[in-house]
Design brief:
single chain; 207 residues; alpha+beta; 4-stranded mixed sheet; 8 helices
């Protein structure tokens, strides 16, 4: 019996958590929520996530929201999947650094660029500083090796790889060679392919 419930919509950041769940490899139950029916704003779902955002997971009685937090939580909750370095490993800092760089810098930088938000008078007041600086740092992160931790794939790659994939698809991220090659390596993961195929089935069933 699965004790994880995954609240999902394939047109959301739920795709990140979906890939992560497939990487973890434990049973889970998917509860699909349709935006066109307002199912993410029902009292039942708002009791899970008051923001009405997707994704969320419920593991037993524990609720975790925010895609980066879900990735980090699942990696630690299921260590057999080997998706996070040990807490006392020097790699742990690098893992945290780029995981939360993705959440705190990459996503807002891409969103601001996509919506052509005007520059602010004090770029230093923004969490990511500037779009150019963010992309240069991101390129450094994904060029260190096959993955963020070198040859070792981790939950940080699930999150950062998802952000890069979304940014390239939305044409809001410069199609630098380093980003394209890194995404191609991530997309070869069997778990990525399983999640993507299932999400396409969900989408077709709704059309």
């Amino acid at each position: 019996m699965a004790d994880i419930t995954f609240f999902h919509n394939p047109q959301s950041r739920g795709r990140i958590a979906h890939w992560m769940l497939e990487e973890v490899g434990v049973p889970y139950k998917t509860q699909l929520l349709r935006f066109d029916r307002g199912e993410h704003k029902t009292p039942e779902y708002l009791a899970v996530n008051p923001m009405g955002k997707i994704p969320a997971i419920k593991h037993g009685d524990l609720v975790v929201t925010e895609a980066a937090a879900i990735c980090a939580y699942l990696a630690d909750a299921f260590p057999a999947a080997n998706l996070a370095p040990p807490a006392d490993s020097p790699e742990r800092g690098t893992y945290y650094r780029w995981m939360f760089f993705g959440a705190g810098c990459v996503e807002p930088a891409i969103v601001d660029h996509m919506f052509k938000r005007p520059p602010v008078d004090r770029p230093g007041a923004l969490g990511y500083g500037s779009y150019a600086d963010t992309l240069n740092a991101l390129e450094q992160a994904v060029s260190a090796g096959q993955f963020i931790l070198g040859d070792r794939f981790s939950a940080a790659d699930v999150y950062v790889g998802s952000e890069i994939g979304w940014g390239l698809m939305a044409k809001a991220l410069e199609p630098r060679k380093a980003f394209q090659e890194y995404l191609a390596r991530c997309a070869e993961r069997p778990a990525f392919k399983r999640a993507a195929a299932q999400d396409e089935k969900y989408m077709k069933a709704w059309t």
